[in-house]
Amino acid sequence: MARIAIFHIFLAWALVVGVMPAKAAEPVLRVAVLNHSPPMSYTDSSGVLTGFNVEIMHVLCEVMHVRCEPVSVTLDRVVDAVAAGEFDFAAVSLLATPERRARVLMTRPYYRSISVWFARPGVRPGSGRVALVKGGVQHRYASAHAWSVVPVESHDGIAVALQQGAADGTLLPMATALALQQDARVKSLGLTTAVLRDPELAGDVCLSVNPRSPELVDKLNEAIDLIKRDGRFDRINSRFIPFRLQ
Amino acid sequence: MRAKGSHLPEQAPGTPPPVIAEARIRHWPAGTVLAGLGLVFAAIAASLVMWLAVDQRLVKDVALQLHDQTVPWTLERQRLARNLEELRFGGQSVLTASDQGGREEAFFLVRVLAAHPSMGDDPRVALLVAEVESFLAQIVSGASKPDLARWEAMSNRLRLLADDLSVEGGQRMTVELARMTDAMHQARYKLLFNLILVAVFLVSFLVILQRFLIRPLQRIHASLMTLDPHGPVPQPAPLAMAEIHVVEKAIVRFHETLRENEDVRRKLERLATTDSLTGLPNRRHFMGLAAAEMARAARYGRPITVGIADLDHFKQVNDRFGHSVGDHVLQVFAELLAETLRQTDLVCRYGGEEFAFIFPETAPEEAMRLAGRLRLRLAERPVVLADGQVLSVTVSLGLADGAGRGLEECLARADQALYEAKHQGRDRIVVAAASDERVPTSP
Question: Residue B443: is the preceding peptide bond cis (ω within 30°)?
Answer without folding.
Answer: yes
